[in-house]
Design goal:
138 residues; Porin; seven-stranded antiparallel sheet
């Protein structure tokens, strides 16, 4: 189920949707330093196939910084504008995120975060998210 205002801040109707994503990453970590930086360049296209079919394209440029405080926890923050590639090229959403990555075991970590998403509708529509993600890599 998709709400009338979904997580990217554009209006849609309930129904099936599809998304195609192309992304590339650039990582930088100086030797012997407790911090690192990551940039991500992502292009996404969405299709909504309910009564009115709509196609949306976004360019997403995320910058993320991370600092290792202790052996078992990292603090991070990121900034990501969503640039609409439609007829009106504009920033349609801005996402700010900060959190902690807890390294529990080899291949497992817990990510706790706060995320603020601001829509371009005169910055009136704000989405606040507090989340916990359990990651297992094998």
């Amino acid at each position: 189920m998709v709400s009338v205002l979904d997580f990217h801040g554009w209006n849609t109707t309930p129904g099936p949707q599809a998304r195609v994503t192309l992304a590339t990453y650039l990582n930088w970590k100086p030797k012997g330093q407790p911090f690192s930086m990551q940039s991500r360049f992502r292009v996404e296209q969405y299709w909504s196939s309910w009564q009115d079919s709509q196609t949306l394209r976004f360019l997403r440029l995320r910058t993320k910084g991370k600092v290792s405080l202790f052996k078992f926890v990292d603090v991070y923050g990121s900034f990501e504008p969503f640039i609409s590639l439609g007829l009106r090229k504009q920033v349609s959403l801005v996402r700010f995120e900060g959190g902690l990555n807890w390294k529990l075991k080899k291949g497992a970590q817990l990510n706790s975060f706060y995320r603020l998403e601001v829509n371009n509708n005169y910055f009136r529509n704000k989405i606040h998210t507090i989340g916990i993600v359990w990651e297992i890599k094998y």
